Amino acid sequence: MSGTSPLAASPVADTLYVNGDILLMAGKEPAYAEALAVKDGKISFVGARADAPKAAQTVDLGGKTLLPGFIDSHGHMVAYGKNLIDADLVGTPDIPDLLARMRAHARTVPAGAWIVGFGYSAKNMKENRTPTVGELDTVSTTTPVMIVDSSGHLGAGNSALFAIAGVGPSTADPVGGTFSRQAGGKALAGPMEETALNLVREKRPAFEGQMADNVILGGAKAWASMGQTSAQDCGIGLGSDDMAILRNAISKNLLPIDLYVCAKDSIIDPMLAQANAVRVDATAGKVRLATRVDGDTRYINRVRMGGIKFWLDGSVDTAWFTQPFTNNPPGKTGVYLGYEQIPDEVLNAAFDRFWNTDIQINMHMNGDAAADQALRAIEKAVKKYGMRDHRPVFIHASYLRPDQIEKMRTYGAVPSFLTASIPPAGDAVVYLWGPERAATSLAAATFVREGLPFTFSHDAPVSPSPSILAIVDAGVNRIAARSGRVIGPDQRVSPYQALRAVTAYGAYQIHEETTKGTLEVGKLADLVILDANPLRVTPTSIKSIKVLETIKEGVTVFRLVPTPVP
């Protein structure tokens, strides 16, 4: 930023920000300050310019907007970093284009690695289907080829992939997933859904050395460029090397921003063992721990083992409902309710183990049957162990009935609404789930009226970009990209309420509200500077606001480089 003054004689603060919209995010209504000072990585002053301390440097915001650093309430930063190395299939219009992208990428893949692509959407392709095993064999017959759609719940593979994964026509479908088969059932068709896909992709060869560094560095760079000072990866373990990538990041102190991680339910014990091993290594001097400004010992070199994640159902096509889909997805016949992914016993056992701990339980759910399952588990835990401030997270919580919202209030559950899904999938939700369920989906306005906390998420790489301003825009406007119609107009929220979902409420969700989420004295100097104020622009232009600078504990971790004028 321009406008830096000379060094003051006896500075009280390191940096003073003035002459802009300094939006505090500390209350139910917008409030501004004329000046904000930073000292030793924390906010040391908020108030009138006339009362501000001297500082080593004064930053003239020039009318720009200063906000608390954005908090990712549900994303997959490690997975995103991996995808930066894979073929980009976002926006592919048809199968020939998809295969061409995969073949081009194959030429860059080192020996021993898989040929992987991410981000296609079958419903947006000309053929309205996923490529077959035979079509993917045209990319390679000897190297495993795997594609994963933009939801992360569906994919397909070639013959070499299934061979190395040990999957054949006689392989039983896992609970909560399917391997598609050709007519007659004697050969695999290629597509995989849900837990079946997970069984295959966890066998992918590990990212090591510089590639492992690049996963973290690339992901963190992308998050910081969108104004995020706290990232998340809630699904560690989808890749067999995820834990090794995190441990590499910790040992090399690679992260410029904080990263809250949730372990996939199947790897929680190995993940806890790894976290303990890192602490043991640190005590023995084998890992050099960076000092945290806030003294939060939950973080180890910016990585916090925060929670455990369960998938209770699938995506838009495979959400688990108590009432049938209004229109079935392609290939589904009869009364279709979607997928239950795990039995109650598994979830109940997790609550028995973790309800009274600091390991937060995160549960992926889209349909109301999945929300019922989560609430049953919470109710049993409360009856056994009593109520506590656990804040179980309902990831997506796409469709909630009024009685379920009331129970969430009782138990302190926090929904993380995937508003990023509204523009690309809003029309599909109306078609598949019906207009009534669509109108009350992602019920942010209901939570505002009830005075309950909620967050917004991008779920990147499920969304192509980890943009926070895009999900704020989507929560404010709820416009489906294809049709232009508003999906659930009564669930739209104000720009300020939407910003709370990615700042103050984001910090609350992860039990870090005492140090993050608002601009108050004593909190971390986690800041973002925007080129416009989301509260003062046309609501439909919020997504076009630019992040100019992202600051983590007083240190710039991203600065937008101006585009040269021709």
Describe it.
This protein is of the alpha/beta class and 566 residues long. Helix content is 29%, strand content 22%. The radius of gyration is 24 Å and the shape is globular.
Mass-distribution shape = globular
SS-derived structural category: alpha/beta
Helical residues, percent: 25-40%
Low-confidence stretches: 1-10
Number of helices: 17
In terms of quaternary structure, what is this?
single chain
Number of strands: 23
**Integer-rounded radius of gyration:** 24 Å
Largest sheet: 9 strands, mixed
How confident is the prediction overall: mean pLDDT? 94
- The N- to C-terminal Cα distance equals 22 Å
Strand content: 15-25%
Features:
single chain, 566 residues, alpha/beta, 17 helices, 23 strands
Give a short summary of the structure.
It is built from 17 helices and 23 strands.
Layout of strands and helices, then pairs:
Layout: E1 13-23, E2 32-39, E3 42-47, E4 55-60, E5 65-68, E6 70-71, H1 77-83, E7 87-88, H2 95-106, E8 115-120, H3 133-137, E9 145-149, E10 154-157, H4 159-165, E11 177-181, E12 188-194, H5 195-201, H6 210-225, E13 228-236, H7 242-252, E14 258-264, H8 268-283, E15 299-300, E16 303-311, H9 344-354, E17 360-365, H10 368-385, E18 393-396, H11 402-411, E19 414-417, H12 422-433, H13 435-439, H14 444-450, E20 455-456, H15 468-477, H16 495-500, H17 504-509, E21 527-530, E22 547-552, E23 555-559
Parallel strand pairs: 1-4, 1-5, 6-13, 7-8, 8-9, 13-14, 14-16, 16-17, 17-18, 18-19, 19-20
Antiparallel strand pairs: 1-2, 2-3, 5-21, 9-10, 10-12, 11-12, 15-16, 21-22, 22-23
